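Researcher: We're teaching a course module on how sequence relates to structure. For the next exercise, students receive a sequence and then see the predicted structure as tokens, so they can try to spot secondary structure elements on their own. Here is the exercise chain.
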Amino acid sequence: MERAELEKLYETNGAAVERRCRALLGDGEEARDMVQEVFLRAVVHAGGFRGEASPTTWLYRITTNLCLNRLRDRKAQIPIELVAQRLPGGGTPEGAAAARERAAALLDGLDERERQVVVYRYLDGMTQEEIAQVTGWSRRTLGKKLGRFAARAQALAEDGDGKVRR
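Model: And here is the predicted structure for the students to work with:
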């Protein structure tokens, strides 16, 4: 990828990368720092871009991976607050605390790639086709993983005690 292409990539996607970083990290200053890191990574690894996906998809993947790595380094792994906001019953302070506990229990035991799929599907609203393009997994594999995740979420909601039964 040539320098002009990278500059165009930044002009076209810089704001979207920052929004993505802010959504995942929950901190504006850290998001701005991460944007620099994302584009630095893109420059360093531009020679490794194989063109199998669009440059935007490639950049999106770099952004997500770096942000998830940062969250893992912070011991948060996935922004539990974002998952908790999408669970029912968070309208009161007690409900919000219970939703955070359910979100943490729901995400417990997922490997890193499964967590990425959860972020892509439930936080970003991506389709299975889009997720398959970003992760390299087949739609069938994604369907199975998302189905298991949905079943765990349903069981957790029905159980109500914050424990996921396996």
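Model: If you want an answer key for the exercise: The chain has two domains: 1-76, 91-166. Helices lie at 3-25, 28-44, 55-73, 80-85, 93-107, 112-123, 128-135, 139-159.
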